[in-house]
Amino acid sequence: MSQARSSSSGQTFALFRAVKNTLAAKVGQSRGHLIASGTLAFGYCAQLAFQMVYFLILTRMLGPELFGRFAAALAAINLVAPIAGIGFAEVALVRVSQDREKTGLWAANALATTAVLGAVLALCLALVSGILASDQWLIWQLMLGLAFSELVLVRCCIVIARVHQARREIVRTAVINVAVAAMKAMIALGLLLSGQRSLVMLIILLDICFTPLLFILFMSLTRHAPTIFSISWRHLRDNIRLALSFATAVICKAVYTDLDKLFLARWSTSYVVGTYAAGYKMLSLSFMPMRAVLEATLPRQIQLADYNRPGCSRFTVNLLLLNVALAGCIAGSIYLLAPWATLLLGEEFEDSIGVLRIGFLLPVLQAVHYTLGNYLTATGHQSTRAFLQLVVLVVYVVAGLIVIPLYSWQGAIWTSLGCESLLALLFGLVCIVSLVGDRHESVAEDSGASVE
């Protein structure tokens, strides 16, 4: 009897210890995610501050019309930017998240494709600018310099940041993001303080300063991830479909984020483009805190989806609630503080207030569809995500061609809101169908196991 009692108490103690260890592991994971999200959020807040400084200096340095031409050129660059690298930066994030031993391989693949294709795209944009030769566009020399800076130098820095993110080196990811934004802000501030309000000098300095920064970041990556850095054509070929699906998704997002500026440049004035772009830029920057949470947690989502699909679903629901609550607070602040935007932008940007007042819900809509979209990516439905974004792209282009010529910037912001809402709705429906399907598969597997 005493032996049975001792055995029972031993089993109870073992069960208690197992439960304790499980809870400790979960608390440790939660604390780790919280620290990672907080670190990246702090980095994004610093990045947001520098981007805001850069953006505000440009509005005051260039004025509405020249800023409108600059914004239109930057929108064109952003539209083709996803083609630079054709999605291999995102493939590197997924593959390195799955296996850190492949850091060198995927860093080399992503950097090589980004550098080569970015340079080709910069030349193509310069050629288009030379052919257009419009007063609402930058001359080809300026377009070449700006495109090279954004498509080659800046995007390669971002690729390195993504590799560090996949390795869960969140501090280095945050440092790189902040360094890129801080470099732009310091260059613009230096020009403003020196009285050199020249777009030519701005672009020249961007190219000159980002070249050594990229070199330093690359050397840092090779020191902290001392694996073989060699390009593998076989791995590029084997992952081309996944890369293209990522590229398609990012291209679609870039189109219904920046095509409205090009439409306005076609059917409106540089002044309208400048005031609209200023307001829209403030809206897009307000998404930074939610983006920090999403960037910090995506590798964990991918890992959970590999071995614990229900856990990944619960994790995503918690992320969604957090991001929507945070975005709601930001949206309310934007609506209330919009009348004071001219204190930052300048009195000439009074029309930007209307953009902020109409588009204040944009961060909430983006928080919903980005969170759900990351779930689709983590659970192997990236092609579905890309297809739905293509559908929204078609809707956006058709709506923009009809609405923007008639209603100018009001039509542009309402078109953006409508398409973001449609994307959130479609992602939500697909996630629900995916969850139901996974539950049925789990029940079927449990039934089969019980029969055996």
Layout: helices, strands, pairs:
Elements lengths: L1 H79 L7 H11 L4 H30 L7 H27 L3 H25 L4 H26 L8 H6 L1 H28 L2 H16 L2 H20 L1 H29 L4 H4 L6 H7 L3 H17 L3 H70 L1
Helix pairs in contact: 1-4, 1-5, 1-8, 1-9, 1-10, 2-3, 2-4, 2-8, 2-10, 3-4, 4-5, 4-6, 5-6, 8-9, 8-15, 9-13, 10-11, 10-14, 11-14, 14-15
Summary, kept brief:
The protein is mainly alpha-helical.
Helix content: over 70%
Global Rg: 24 Å
Q: Tell me which oligomeric state these chains represent.
A: single chain
Q: Could you tell me the strand content as a percent range? A: under 5%
Order of helices and strands: HHHHHHHHHHHHHHH
Structural class: mainly alpha
Uncertain segments = 11-16, 18-30, 448-452
Q: How far apart are the termini?
A: 36 Å
| Mean pLDDT figure | 81
Query: In this structure, how is the largest beta sheet organized?
Result: none
Describe the protein.
The structure is a single chain. With 452 residues, this protein is mainly alpha-helical. 87% of the residues lie in helices and 0% in strands. It has 15 helices and no strands. The longest helix has 79 residues, at 2-80. Mean pLDDT is 81; it is low at 11-16, 18-30 and 448-452.
Attribute tags:
452 residues; mainly alpha; globular; disordered C terminus
